[in-house]
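User: I'm curious what two different proteins look like when written out as structure tokens. Can you demonstrate?

Assistant: Sure. I'll show them one after the other, since each token string lines up with its own sequence. Here's the first protein:
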Amino acid sequence: MAQDADAVREAIARDRAELADTVQALARKVDVKERVREKVSKGTEQVQQKAGEVREQLRQVTPEPARSQLSVLADMVKERPVPFLVAGALVVGLVLGRLWARER
């Protein structure tokens, strides 16, 4: 009789553990915000990894004089970003204007 009671207790404990695991798995599936956050994080990591690979490939194919000039230009942009932003916006506006004019 004691063995039967012990076996029942063990079965109940095992069922409780399985049920707790199932409830946790369902809670993870229902937590849409967390799943989206995980996917965004994973996507961000992939993009950063790919950007690093492209950056390294560019370093390998760019001659040293060009690299030093790009470094100087990057420093100038960091010191005074507003004129470069304005110039960039102007270029983008011109390109979009030409594309829009072609479609008409």
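Here's a second, unrelated protein for contrast:
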Amino acid sequence: MSETRWLDPLETRAWRGLMCAHARLVAQLDAELLASSGISLPDYEVLVHLSEADSQRLRMSELALRLEISPSGLTRRLDGLVASGMVERVQCPEDRRGTFAVLTELGAERLEAAAPAHVAQVRRWFVDRLTRDQLCALADAMASIIAGSGACSSSEVRAS
């Protein structure tokens, strides 16, 4: 059994800072997005993924992978979006066992209406607090972590 490599002060500060900043940022953005549009941050994320997909639809399994949640977690998350008319579940014609999550016209309209305020909130609480050099370093650092974990294959988070 190997000896534990405890975090040094810089490593501890970076780790705890990441965890604290993430929690505060997500809570702030969720509260403001909900107040400005009536859409929670997790629901907004679903709508964004669907809006960017071919034909604005994704297999449930693919959407769960992109969101980094379990299939049952996705089912629960979609229940509210389906009930609100922003997403539909559609049986896959080629594979009767497969189901697509499909962005509806209402979902696209609600996303389009929510996006300007959300982008302003992201700028206010995140982007505008960092220099371009800090943003570049952070983007590169996150891409390195993501590449090492096999998570989030989106090209937006890859190092250039």
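A detail about the second structure: The radius of gyration is 18 Å.
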